[in-house]
Amino acid sequence: MTTFVDQVRELGVKQAVIAKTDEVVERITAGMNVNDVRAALRGDEPRRPNPRLRPHADSFWLHIRPSFYHTEVTNIYPTFRLGWLSTFMFVWETITGIILMVFYTPSPLVAYGNMWNILANVPLGQLFRNMHRLGAEVMVIVVALHMLRTFITGSYKKPRQFTWATGMILLVLTLLLSFSGYLLPWDQLAYWALTVFLSASEAAPAPPAVNQNILLIAQGGPSLGANGLLRWYLLHVLLMPLLLGIFFFVHYYKVVLHGLSLPPGREEIGEDTAKRVPRDERTYFIPDLLTSELMWTALLSLFLIAGSLWLWDAPLETHADPVVTPLHVVAPWYLSWSQGWLKLADKTIIVGFIPLLMVAFIVMPYFEVGKSRRYADRRVGLSVSMVFIAFMLVSNWMGTPEFRVESSPDREVSIKVLPEEGPSLLMAVPYEEIQPGSYLPGQVVSGSPHLTEALAYYKTILEEHSCTMGNPALTDFHVAACRIEEGGTGEKRYGVGINNKEAMPDPYSELRVEEVQDGLLELNLYYEVANPDDLNEILNISDDWVKHKHIDSNYEEECRYFNKC
Predict the structure, then answer these.
(1) Alpha-carbon distance 126 to 119, whole Å?
(2) Would the pTM count as exceeding 0.85?
(3) Are the C-beta atoms of residues 433 and 421 closer than 8 Å to each other?
(4) If you ran DSSP here, which 8-state letter would residue 309 be given?
């Protein structure tokens, strides 16, 4: 074999460098030299024999990719590139996840501190955390849209039933992969969401001994703690990615085996011609599809990076506390539908129904045996799918606190203005701006811009949970008229808004500040609600919502990091 030194002696330095570069490029691309790459990027015809086919035979990365596709499936429709984008998002999550793993320890003693270290001390730590969390949300959306597209175009029909089944399994694994990482920050949001989720296992339609053992395995003990965090961490970084990788390769093998299905109207009913591609209807992977996929990858990367930098921050609540239950515990948005269902029916029924629904989706192609993929022939199926999508969207809304969740309006206001734990706009007001005394919602305090802003927020929240009967106790208060409902005992309930949420009729409220000792302020939210039928009768007085602010507290910086200022 001729060495580089021998080539220099024989050809000269310039020609030797060109020859060596050509050789390196050909090894990297598994068969294409510099001129072949340039010709491909220019769109020139390849030389013979076609070097653009060699990477599909000799390259590790491209040997599983077909060398050409039917031109009909290379446009945006019918695939929308969702399959490739799903693959890319899995790679994206793997890379960003590995980087975060370096700075994380799955222990309740340090996990939350690790999150703060990533945000405050690790170079680009907040960016990588945002990209990982946002990527998880996007991956769920892309995979779900990919399966929806497959159903709408009828690409699940014979001979692709097993491809659909593996795709549904990948969707379930994607949801579990995203949710299993939900606990890792070990904050209140994660701890209580997972606690509620795990409590459903006790209601599964199985013998109590089985349910209790499943709960013990998932929690790692009688309650969620160190063992539980470690198990969910291993589930997130080992088991789920391993299973997802296995089913991905099975899924992709079946995609290559049967080919990408053509648009529904392109084939005769009952025919599948995806693997019989006429020469004049072929589009080769190199360069057309390769450059197209690189373009979509770049656009999605730009969206994720820009979104993580300027548009969105991964949430981080206060440290997990098994003693303090947040007012509203909600599941992630992609599982909120299950929480909505639990409000409508017995927990045992719902917990048993969800796995049956998943199985039904997986085996659906084996029972739905209609041969036609054309839209006009599938009106019933497509209509049912649209109704199901609408039902899931409504179910997601039902999973929010807006549906069938009642709590006292004054507590709703207090928890937003002065939360039990962690920072808030009011707690972030500099100590020197808060003087002992009483402050009304929306009051403008001269020389105290931060306190004025906090009081304006106080007024906004109070207005959201108030209504009027025409006797406002506070001036400049803009609220809707009360809706009155009378109970069986003659008691009246006052509501407001589309959901008729319980509200306070014409309330009076103020913030009371008292210096209880040097450098320590006591902040108290006071509420007084009079009976609209008899203004001399007080329906409710509440003055027990108290928090303290020390002169050396660090609420201002915490508030900025928690994105609550």
Answers:
(1) 5
(2) yes
(3) no
(4) I
Q: Mean pLDDT throughout 217-235?
A: 93
What is the structure's pLDDT at 64?
Answer: 85
| CA pair distance 87, 255, nearest whole angstrom | 13
State residue 1's pLDDT score.
58
CA distances from 533 to 13, 474, 506 (A): 100, 18, 12
CA distance 253 to 264: 22
SS3 breakdown of the chain: % helix, strand, coil, rounded to 5?
Answer: 55, 10, 35
| pLDDT at residue 564 tops 70 | no
Which amino acid is located at 226 in the chain? Answer: A
Distance from C-alpha of 371 to C-alpha of 381, rounded to nearest angstrom: 13
Distance of alpha carbon 565 from alpha carbon 425, whole angstroms: 5
Average pLDDT of the segment spanning 497-506: 85
Kindly report, residue by residue over 446-469, the tens digit of the pLDDT. 999 999 999 999 999 999 999 998
Query: In this structure, what are the phi and psi dihedrals at residue 469, rounded to the nearest 5 degrees?
Result: -110, 15
Q: What is the pLDDT of residues 386-415, one digit of tens each?
A: 999 999 999 999 998 888 787 889 999 999
b or e along 526-565 (b: 16 or more beta carbons within 10 Å of the residue's beta carbon)?
bbbbbebeeeeeebeebeebebebeeebebeebbebbeeb
CA distance linking residue 504 with residue 561, whole number of Å: 33
The pair of three-digit structure tokens given for residue 241, joined into one six-digit string: 């990615």
Q: CA-to-CA distance for 387 and 408, rounded, in angstroms?
A: 35
In the chain, CATH 1.20.810.10 covers: 68-269+281-311+322-398
Per-residue pLDDT tens digits for 350-391: 999 999 999 999 999 999 888 999 999 999 999 999 999 999
pLDDT beyond 70 at 132: yes
Q: How far is Cα 546 from Cα 426, in angstroms, rounded to an integer?
A: 13
**C-beta separation of 474 from 509 below 8 A:** yes
CATH code, residues 68-269+281-311+322-398: 1.20.810.10
- Rounded distance between C-alpha atoms, residue 446 and residue 452, angstroms: 8
- Residue 95: Cβ within 10 Å count: 13
Work out whether the CA dihedral 313, 315, 316, 318 comes out positive or negative.
positive
